[in-house]
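Field: COMPLEX_INPUT
Field: COMPONENT_COUNT = two
Field: RESIDUE_TOTAL = 778
Field: MODE = joint
Values follow.
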Amino acid sequence: MRAEKLDAADELRGKRDAFVLDDVVYLDGNSLGALPAVVPGRVEDVVRRQWGELRIRSWEESGWWTAPERIGDRIAPLVGAAPGQIVVGDSTSVNVFKALVGAVRMAGEGRDEILVDATTFPTDGYIAESAARMTGCTLRPVAPADVPGALGDRTAAVLLNHVDYRTGRLHDLPALTAAAHGAGAYAVWDLCHSAGALPVGLDEHGVDLAVGCTYKYLNGGPGSPAYLYVRRELQDRFDSPLPGWNSHAEPFGMRSGYEPAPGALRGRVGTPDILSMLALEAALEVWDGVPVEAVRAKSLALTDFFLECVAEYVPEGRVECLTPVPHAERGSQIALRCDDAGDVMKRLVEQGVVGDFRAPDVLRFGFTPLYVGFADVERAARVLAQTLG
Amino acid sequence: MRAEKLDAADELRGKRDAFVLDDVVYLDGNSLGALPAVVPGRVEDVVRRQWGELRIRSWEESGWWTAPERIGDRIAPLVGAAPGQIVVGDSTSVNVFKALVGAVRMAGEGRDEILVDATTFPTDGYIAESAARMTGCTLRPVAPADVPGALGDRTAAVLLNHVDYRTGRLHDLPALTAAAHGAGAYAVWDLCHSAGALPVGLDEHGVDLAVGCTYKYLNGGPGSPAYLYVRRELQDRFDSPLPGWNSHAEPFGMRSGYEPAPGALRGRVGTPDILSMLALEAALEVWDGVPVEAVRAKSLALTDFFLECVAEYVPEGRVECLTPVPHAERGSQIALRCDDAGDVMKRLVEQGVVGDFRAPDVLRFGFTPLYVGFADVERAARVLAQTLG
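Field: COMPLEX_OUTPUT
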């Protein structure tokens, strides 16, 4: 009854029809977003007509060449960025490398330390280690809360996750960015688990560089290209470690000397991956007319409701919630710990409730406000309770 | 008449039906290969069923996770490599960076110079400059023919193109690789303009590392992912500058310490771009039963015939052929120089003969043996002659 009322009052309810869904409760959109209904037709057009019929002409006529910056501008409002600061392309890992090396080069001599979120998704840490090694820096892992105290006059850059992939904890982007700036360091944010789920405010909070994937809350498809944000005022100083020909001021001049393009284009590298990129472009159409604030409000309502249902249905002590209860510290997922999490998730999936398992003992449930409803939440909690026994 | 006879005797003639073609003479497959007929249906299945219905389960059930190495093994026989040495992913530029930095690290201390093909496709030169800068090396551009004389005991690596993108000149991979080895340096080859057009023989000739794109003669689609070859004996020493989580020995262990996977997997970086990658996998099916030697024989016959027709139809002196006449020095394209090349190519395209223009004065015609026939060649030469006036 409670779920029905919440669903009836949900302004975003109609958006569910923009996705291909079935009777599964899909709470894994924080790993791979569901298929937007507009995508298959668009991809077919890209393959059959743009590639199959127009062939090479499509680089110009179908707008292939300018896709990275065009789609970047489509993502921009979702992360609070004005146009001209984001390019799409490459994987998140590759973009972390560009962003961190770029930040260290901006910081200049005398700053030879990179701080990295000690609880980061592993790839960010591995790539940060490589960026540090290749720029003569040392890498120091620090819990995000300890970053302000760890910053110093040797800190070149700080790499942080906006939302922790495991616990779903939302970190304080405005305060941590301000702290980095206070120490003269550059703030690099990984938005994989926040973009499309909550307001980010890159421009408003003066974030320097940011990266993110597009296959979670942005529903771009498996392995769809990631993006790189470089704040406008820093673009002239952004010195990419991957200066591919797509980032050249005159790419078709075929000149042997490298001269970087102005603006966000400087973040491009090689030839863009058109099929995946244009599938993402189509997927982003579901955001038309959707204010990210409404998404955030629903996301919190969904996770609140899930926590309530779990508290009501699941015997106390059977699971431990790793996700913070205060809204200001919560992303759009709930992580529950229990010793038999791997087995529990297997049984949940068999019963049509799809979340994921993170070794060794975490059940992760992601709530995508565009297509998850309150009845889904209640059903998930009931099935979870039955499964936990 | 001559063309008809050649077409009738062409063993690869039937392969044309494996592609979506029209009445255009498409001589730009060295830029973007034509659409293989099997691709649209496969892509539709990947989008609608694998992503749309199975969603997250497809990482395992649809073989998404292992696609980079599986498709690498599909490319391997085309470039003369045994299985387990190639992974697909990222752009050519990104793979050049991995390969060159990897080579310099293998070379070790005391070797601080990288030689690069002075006539290279620009991105290789830009990326080589970055690799040199980030590993403390100097970069020296050298004409490929001068490489043997330029090699020394400080040379760490040599980056060369198997076929020159502009002139279509085929460089002597066996001899230049042997020369690099003779000086104790590592040979890194860019196969963009040779793979799928002629035998490469990576294993046979002891090439150390190689990269290539898949959207030219391999017909993978616009911006389809590139590949990286690391010779088996060197894999344990391959130390990637982009150690993303996909290259970890235990990627789902989510460990903070990096431990590289054994084998070719070490060349992976981030989450693979599945739509583009599986389109490529389908595209590679057209190679079933096609020996690359047959492709090479037809390629030479096509370019020989084009040169004959041009000599016959085009007034002497109107164009200058930049492509070497000896077979041993010719790839699968013909480059003709004339002052008004930009305008000429525009008019050729209007008349249904599609090649491309490379600034400032080159007409480039690529011959893809799987779908270009001898009648196409004759028609192209006739239209060219009329256009040149």
